Amino acid sequence: MRQLLIATAMLTALASCSNGEKTARYLIDPPVPAERLPNRLGTAELKDVSLPEYASGDEVSWQSTDGAVRSNTKQLWADDPQRAVTLTLARTISDISGATVIAEPWPLAEPPRRTVEVRVEKALAQASGGYRLSGRYFVSDAGAGGANQARSFDITIPLAEKPGPAAIARAQSQAIAQLARQIATLGGPGSAIRTKAAPVPRLDDIFSQPLPPLEGS
Fold it and tell me: Which domain of life, per UniProt (predicted)?
């Protein structure tokens, strides 16, 4: 009888631990852009966005008043943060500008004209107030005379004094929308560097060319 009671207690504990309703999952979902910007990117492959370690985990993180970055195992992102940020950023840039921006790997037969790389240095709901998204982005154009961009971004979205994970998710979504606009316009502090030389032909490009005709034919 005692063993039966112990087994029942263990099953009850396991059931309570695995109760999915006690775990909240939050989406990264920027609002649909209301404006339309000129297409300055054409076709571009977006590399996987580089995130800080605390922002790339499953748990929604925030900074407490003592400066520590904290999280809760019951408050999770609904998708892998790197994947979600990369796909959402690519889609938002495309929606707002009409450019064809696709997260890697590039799925089309025709290669992209440009490559976009985003390196996030901070992505956090700060103790001082506001969600901050900062870092640098790079746009490379391998074509002769192409403009390569190296620019920075520093975006802050207002938050309540003690924001919950839902408010943090909304603020992060808004910050990504602002970053998408900045990349689409190639805006932000930084510089543009012209590509001076034509790219080295790839092996598949060389071997795809037709062979010259044989002499005497």
Answer: Bacteria
